[in-house]
Design goal:
Oligomer: homodimer
Largest interface: A-B, 36 and 36 residues
CATH class of one domain in chain A: Alpha Beta
Low-confidence stretches of chain A: none
Distance between the termini of chain A: 34 Å
Strand order of the largest sheet of chain A: 3-6-2-1-9-11-12-10
Number of helices of chain A: 13
Structural class of chain A: alpha/beta
Family (chains A, B): Belongs to the aspartokinase family.
Organism (chains A, B): Herbinix hemicellulosilytica
Shape of chain A: globular
Largest sheet of chain A: 8 strands, mixed
GO molecular function (chains A, B): aspartate kinase activity; ATP binding
EC number (chains A, B): 2.7.2.4
Enzyme class (chains A, B): transferase
């Protein structure tokens, strides 16, 4: 099998961890697999380099910052090659120039465009483990670029797609994808399988094991992803297109506490009102989430929506600045709210899933402030203080306690 | 003017020093010069990286070691670009791939073969300062290589040659090239000019401001070198082909304490004896210096020569191992000896220079053990304990105390 593996910065943070990863690679190599391994910079090295840059120049050029940061992964792959050599496994490290990983021009947040696979294929044919720097690329000016948040995951998935790999394993510090955050929901279970779409909904809801970009790319190119722990041999979670027929209705419960609600009250009941309101917010890069429109008094209407709590002040200031064009009577804001969601591909063909969630919340006395649904997701806005109670109740409803 | 400047690791060791260098570059930039600046890795970074490698693998692959080490200069050039930006000077950093600097294949000790100058010329035309990583290149496999000791000086001289630069300035922690080591000879004076050949003799004798490879390359391509301090604005020493007519006979006095003498006594007086002896030593990479052959007793002959004191044990072991083929009566070795040399292009056309040196040594009671001469150099082997006295005496003979 041709397997692409990706290890994050924590997994290669020091000598001992480097050898832990090297031993894992050596095991698979000795089974006869062809291995391409993507590594991040060691531990906090990227943060350290950013701090060095800011110390010199508080607002460093993004081009030069990428030139600086790309050294981090190069150190990781070179040291890993040396560690594999100690274990008797032939390996070769390659940076973005050597692969080459072609990206768009944007420094600091480039997109991968094309990957040359000749060099990697040659090295694999020579029975070498190929170690590739994650997070980085080269643009048309022959300059280094970086891929932004979750960049190394994206590198791994893109390599798996370009090489038509049999599998792309993403190693993290957890055993896989869980039905809910185990720190909040005591009965949370590790999922064996999940679809790309479910994973995308969960990632955007703050489950945060994989970055959306890498999941989107895996879905687009049909790359079979496996999320598993670098600390143990457990099987992890497979992320793929279709899952078993006997699949659960709901694959996960997620919460997002970074939320606030804004109600714009007493808007004129005319076409274009909603457009004006959200146009102004979009121009300030404020992402709006659940939107609810209702009839108000005296022929007016009200629009409520949620934003990230971090964006609340700017959202309010933006709306007030455009009061004359938007035309409303007053604003009502609410902090201390949170979103709780259930996600599951099974919902599409099953009525009553939302109702089952609402029932679970009613049973424990949680009041629902707003509701939003997609084909594979139901989200409710509730009081932040009730998140834990709500998540456990909803989770237990869909995942009846298993025999242990 | 198009000027190539090279700053070593100490000159960019921390934020303050980086800005010192940046201010120097900014001054020359504002005078309208075109600037290409070669930087080494910060401070002891190369040593730190080597230690990291050895900690993982006591005998790391040279290919992977180069992959690791080349990150050092990349950090330096990126940070310098950020510092210049703070000073309002547009700059761009380039690594060996981006330039590109083509070298031979040998990892750890590659030779520069060819430098592409298109990218650098384009950036200079856009009025940018071009910051280039020293010490590194790319070989035909598209792998990083490093240039070995003195590598960044070589990078600078090679760039000056390829770009037909008007000058190549090598910044160090001393004011330039001195007539003798100021720590030993109190009347040592800074030279304003020196020829390539004199510089080569001085460098090989341990004056050590510039590595021989860079001086040889400067001579070959007629690059005008300037050695000057990064700490002050003093003019430094110009290294070039011909110097002023009124030039001094002798440009410098140098000493090398890393010497030992071996006498091979009682060799057969036949052809091929010297060949056999030095052939065995050469096969063990032992460099032999002053060689003296004399008639011994009973129709035999003796050959004396000096080696580096570090190589003494291996040289003796090598000779003893081949005793049967070399055929000699006994070995006599002497440690605690040193070479003192005078160097000067003026010697060639001036008889009596060597005699003047011997006179100076006689005046202070220094016994000469061996003598070796080239067209521009006279070297004597003396007792190590007398080096200081000898150097001062010889120096004062050729550089009568100046009015201060």
């Amino acid at each position: 099998m041709l397997i692409v593996k990706k290890f994050g910065g924590t997994s290669v943070g020091d000598k001992e961890r480097i050898f832990n990863v090297a031993r894992r690679i050596a095991e698979d190599y000795k089974k006869g697999h062809e291995l391409v391994v993507v590594l991040s910079a060691m531990g906090k090295q990227t943060d350290i380099l950013i701090q060095m840059a800011k110390d010199i120049n508080p607002n460093p050029s993004k081009r030069e910052l990428d030139m600086l940061l790309t050294t981090g992964e190069q150190v990781s792959v070179a040291l890993m090659a040396m560690a594999l050599d100690v274990l008797g496994v032939p390996a070769i490290s390659l940076n973005a120039f050597q692969v080459a990983m072609h990206t768009t021009s944007v420094y600091g947040n480039a997109r991968l465009k094309r990957i040359d696979t000749d060099r990697i294929r040659n090295e694999l044919q020579n029975r070498r483990v190929v170690l590739v720097t994650g997070f980085q690329g080269v643009n048309k000016f022959e300059d280094y670029t970086t891929l932004g948040r979750g960049g190394s995951d994206t590198t791994a998935v893109a390599l798996a797609a370009a090489l038509h790999a049999d599998m792309c394993e993403i190693y993290t510090d957890v055993d896989g994808v869980y039905s809910a955050d185990p720190r909040i929901v005591k009965n949370a279970i590790k999922l064996n399988e999940i679809t790309y779409d479910e994973m995308l909904e969960l990632a955007s809801l703050g489950a945060g094991v994989l970055h959306n970009r890498s999941v989107e790319m895996a879905k687009k190119y049909g790359v079979q992803l496996v999320v598993r722990s670098s600390m143990n041999e457990n099987e992890g979670t497979i992320v793929k297109e279709a899952v078993n027929m006997e699949k659960m209705l709901v694959s996960g419960v997620a919460a997002d506490k970074n939320a606030a609600r804004i109600a714009v009250i007493g808007l004129e009941d005319q076409p274009g009102v909603a457009f004006k309101l959200f146009h102004h917010l979009a121009r300030h890069n404020i992402n709006v989430d659940i939107i609810l429109q209702s009839i108000g008094r005296d022929g007016t209407k009200d629009i409520s929506f949620t934003v990230k709590e971090d964006d609340l002040d700017e959202a309010v200031a933006t709306i007030e600045r455009h009061r004359e064009s938007i035309k409303y009577q007053k604003l009502d804001i609410e902090k201390g709210v949170a979103k709780v969601s259930i996600v599951g591909a099974g919902m599409m063909s099953n009525a009553g899933v939302a109702a089952k969630m609402f029932e679970a919340l009613y049973d424990v006395g949680v009041n629902i402030k707003m509701i939003s649904t997609s084909e594979i997701r139901v989200t409710v806005l509730i009081d932040e203080s009730q998140v834990e109670k709500a998540m456990n109740a909803v989770h237990d409803k869909f995942f009846p306690t298993q025999m242990n």
